[in-house]
Amino acid sequence: MTARTRAIRALATGLHATGALGPATTAALRLRGGNAFTILAFHRVNDEADPFFPSLSPGLFAARMKHIADNYVVLPLEDLVERQRRGRVPRNAVALTFDDGYHDTLTHAAPILARHGLPATVFLATGYISGAEMPWYDLLAHALKTSRKDILELVPGAMLRLGSRTERLEALTAVLRHMKRLSDPDRRRAVDRLVTELAPPSADVQKRLMLTWDEAQALLGLGFSIGAHTVTHPILARLEPREAWAEIDGSRTAIERNLGIRVRSFAYPNGGVDDYDRATVDALERSGFTCAVTTRRGLNTPRTPRLELRRGGPWEQHLPTYAMKMAWYQLTGI
């Protein structure tokens, strides 16, 4: 822990101990002004503590949600976008989102959200819902975690050591970074090659990894809205236009067919500035989406494009530091 980190944590702890964090949050929101909102992103919530499949523990998630429920107004993402169009966003508005469609969104996150009456949006990668196929990035994580090999050749001449858990986690970071830069056909071939080379032991690791359609329907009854997240979670900017359209519109139609709802929101896979392009945004508009989220940090003001909404927030596990940084993020978006 650096000296700066220690100083920030000490300040946050002091504000929390004196009961000043709540008033500080209120003051930050007054300084910011109205008709703007932030969007927070989550993936897994469980108590597995598996670094190959990162997650928030239910206890930490519950503490964060209590703080948010006590200090912010949480509204569905799609409703916030419409409220902003009419100039009626509450000063302390926040939207909560979950990506991919993991089973623990229902089993672990949903009960905590229900306890506080908080709505959320879950974005489904529809090709993995109710199916036997594991998302390609999780398949790589499983292969690197369980392989008996000590070394992996990522590309000719680039060798990754797998001798320890730390080396395997570093290898996973390098492999995913490499995969996200490839064209989609090249990425599919590379994933198949690496998984074959790693030869992970067969195991029923994906049996309860993702939601089923019935479970997605149950989330609707628990106050969730459902958005689209493509079919197979490719990097859309690496696709040909017709392939991108199939991923975008295919995920929307799968949700509408299976759940009987209109899908208005979308989340870009990976979501960085290089992960989608103008053609992607145009395809979303043609498909009828009214809003889409990136992973680009920032506040969403009336000037933010509705199909390029900013999404981010603090990640600290120390709750007072999280609360203080959340107030700062609400004020500045950084």
Main traits of this protein?
about 325 residues, two-stranded antiparallel sheet, alpha/beta, about 10% strand, 12 helices, TIM Barrel, five-stranded parallel sheet, about 45% helix
Task: Explain what this protein looks like in three dimensions.
Helices cover 47% and strands 12% of the residues. It is α/β, with parallel strands linked by helices. It folds into two domains: 36-131 and 210-314, TIM Barrel (Alpha-Beta Barrel); 136-198. The two termini are 21 Å apart. Helix 2 runs parallel beside helix 12 (319-332), helix 6 packs antiparallel against helix 7 (165-179) and helix 10 packs parallel to helix 11 (278-287).
Strand content: 5-15%
Q: Which percent bin holds the helix content?
A: 40-55%
Major sheet attributes: 5 strands, parallel
State the shape: globular
Q: List low-pLDDT spans.
A: none
Q: State the separation between the terminal residues, measured CA to CA.
A: 21 Å
CATH architecture of the largest domain: Alpha-Beta Barrel
H-E order: HHEHEHEHEHEEHHHEHEHEH
Number of domains as seen in the coordinates:
2
- Under CATH at level 1, the class of the largest domain stands as Alpha Beta
CATH superfamily of the largest domain: Glycoside hydrolase/deacetylase
Short structural summary:
This protein is α/β, with parallel strands linked by helices and 334 residues long. 47% of the residues lie in helices and 12% in strands. Helix 1 packs across helix 12.
How are the secondary structure elements laid out?
Blueprint: H1 3-17, H2 21-32, E1 38-42, H3 58-71, E2 73-74, H4 77-85, E3 93-100, H5 104-116, E4 120-124, H6 136-146, E5 151-155, E6 158-161, H7 165-179, H8 184-198, H9 213-221, E7 224-228, H10 241-259, E8 265-267, H11 278-287, E9 291-293, H12 319-332
Parallel strand pairs: 1-3, 2-3, 3-4, 4-7, 8-9
Antiparallel strand pairs: 5-6
Helix pairs in contact: 1-12, 2-12, 3-5, 6-7, 6-8, 10-11
